[in-house]
């Protein structure tokens, strides 16, 4: 008997839970593969109610899965994430309202509105997080509002409120820790929301930890406003006109450690972001260059959390250079050590030269391979003798890339590495993410073998240290072992 077979049931359930959480498989049920180990493990997993209480049907869900998880969850607190597409789900969910602790609901507007209209008929004593998004098939002429009675003691444990295109009574909030709002007006006011009303709402939640606001009310030029103290704020995201964002920042007293993400409209020159940078420039950051307004999640995976993320719409390359110059000058240049340019798909070589020359202490560069990446390597080759400080380069070869672009990039990269090696300043680490295995062909294998001795450290490909010498040894060992294995299993070896 294995020692694990002697562990008590309670401890085994705890181990199952740790496994599901640490592998991020609690909601998608991929943790259930452990049920196939043996009959005892299967029975223990079926009886572990908390393991079934996290129900995520946003990307992969059927009625059978919903019923099964509700049944096996027993009386455990529920976490529900749903894209609403069928009305009969409403009754099933609301029947379990007293044990729902997290509810994340999005989808067709009329179905989400149906749930909103019935929320006040049920009790939610355990609800701590509520997220509602009826933006799909939304009628712009009609905006649903949350019932006022919900905020009259019906949600005593509510700490996180995330709303999109849903009005609610601003003056009724209190005690929230998380408040992301996207185009949400004050349902208790007959006039459009005011800047003072926004500040009053924020002042009622002094323990806010995360705040995200789109569509900030405009302020009056000659009117004095109060300053709201948010001492626990860890993350602030603002998206509106650059002047409105700046006005709100002036009237918020936040810790210097708060991470700021500002997505301003109306930025036409470097002067437009000057005030934001002067008042809120961080002491350190990871600088990211993206072609879109907001970062894509797959690009942000594993990226460092920036104290300041400023994203705008430069109308031309000269404007881009002016904005970048303002940003870089607002931060001590010796503090910028990492450049994440995985979204800079169209920067020309001149723009890359200007950028790199403004960053004298950059040590690590992150890239995705496309036209802009080739321009980056060209710029590195051109200015290397003046700025020989890059130690680590990471690049990812995206699936949609053509073979010719991969060859062009690898040719330039090999020239850059050889030049560094010849000048006595070899690169210390080269990291390659090649999910489509573009570099597995014979021509690219030869090129990889040539650049291997040019790196004074490790080359890591797809998370594995690349060593062509060891690969050849393993291949030779396999060729010797293969005939014996083929004979053992009766496999014919072709001549």
TrEMBL record:
<feature type="domain" description="F-box">
    <location>
        <begin position="4"/>
        <end position="57"/>
    </location>
</feature>
<protein>
    <submittedName>
        <fullName>F-box domain-containing protein</fullName>
    </submittedName>
</protein>
<dbReference type="InterPro" id="IPR032675">
    <property type="entry name" value="LRR_dom_sf"/>
</dbReference>
<dbReference type="InterPro" id="IPR001810">
    <property type="entry name" value="F-box_dom"/>
</dbReference>
<dbReference type="InterPro" id="IPR036047">
    <property type="entry name" value="F-box-like_dom_sf"/>
</dbReference>
<dbReference type="Pfam" id="PF12937">
    <property type="entry name" value="F-box-like"/>
</dbReference>
């Amino acid at each position: 008997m294995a020692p694990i077979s002697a562990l008590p049931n309670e401890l085994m359930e705890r181990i199952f839970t740790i496994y599901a959480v640490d592998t991020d498989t609690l909601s998608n049920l991929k943790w259930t593969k452990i049920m196939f180990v043996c009959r005892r493990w299967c029975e223990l997993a079926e009886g572990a109610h908390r393991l079934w209480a996290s129900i995520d049907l946003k990307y992969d869900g059927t009625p059978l899965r919903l019923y099964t998880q509700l049944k096996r969850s027993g009386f455990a607190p529920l976490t529900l994430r749903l894209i609403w597409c069928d009305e009969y789900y409403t009754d099933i969910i609301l029947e379990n309202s007293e044990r729902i602790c997290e509810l994340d609901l999005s989808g067709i507007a009329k179905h989400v509105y149906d749930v909103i209209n019935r929320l006040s008929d049920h009790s939610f004593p355990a609800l701590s997080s509520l997220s509602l998004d009826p933006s799909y098939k939304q009628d712009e002429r009609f905006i649903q509002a949350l019932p006022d009675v919900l905020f009259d003691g019906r949600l005593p444990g509510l700490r996180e409120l995330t709303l999109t295109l849903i009005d609610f009574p601003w003056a009724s909030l209190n005690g929230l820790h998380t408040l992301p709002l996207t185009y949400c007006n004050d349902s208790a006011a007959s006039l459009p929301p005011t800047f003072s009303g926004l500040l009053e709402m924020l002042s009622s939640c002094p323990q806010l930890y995360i705040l995200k606001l789109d569509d900030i009310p405009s302020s009056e030029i000659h009117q004095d406003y109060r300053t709201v103290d948010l001492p626990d704020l860890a993350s602030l995201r603002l998206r509106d006109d650059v002047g409105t964002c700046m006005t709100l920042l002036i009237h918020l007293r936040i810790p210097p450690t708060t991470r700021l993400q500002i997505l301003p409209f109306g930025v036409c020159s470097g002067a437009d972001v000057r005030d934001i940078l002067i008042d809120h420039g961080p002491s350190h950051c990871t600088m990211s260059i993206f072609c879109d307004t907001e970062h894509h999640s797959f690009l942000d995976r594993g990226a460092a959390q920036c104290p300041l993320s400023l994203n705008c719409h430069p109308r031309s390359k000269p404007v881009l250079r002016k904005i970048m110059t303002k940003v870089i000058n607002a931060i001590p240049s010796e503090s910028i050590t990492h450049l994440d340019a995985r979204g800079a798909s169209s920067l020309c070589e001149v723009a890359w030269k200007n950028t790199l020359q403004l960053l004298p202490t950059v040590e690590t560069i992150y890239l995705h391979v496309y036209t802009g990446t080739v321009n980056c390597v060209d710029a590195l080759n051109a200015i290397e003798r003046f700025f020989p400080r890059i130690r680590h380069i990471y690049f990812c070869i995206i699936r949609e890339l053509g073979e010719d672009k991969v060859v062009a990039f690898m040719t330039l990269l090999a020239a850059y590495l050889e030049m560094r090696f010849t000048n006595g300043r070899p690169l210390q680490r080269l990291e390659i993410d090649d999910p489509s295995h573009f570099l597995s062909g014979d021509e690219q294998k030869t090129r990889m073998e040539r650049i291997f001795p040019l790196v004074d450290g490790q080359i890591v490909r797809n998370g594995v240290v690349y060593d062509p010498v060891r690969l050849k040894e393993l291949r030779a060992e396999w060729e010797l072992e293969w005939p014996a294995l083929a004979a053992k299993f009766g496999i014919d070896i072709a001549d």
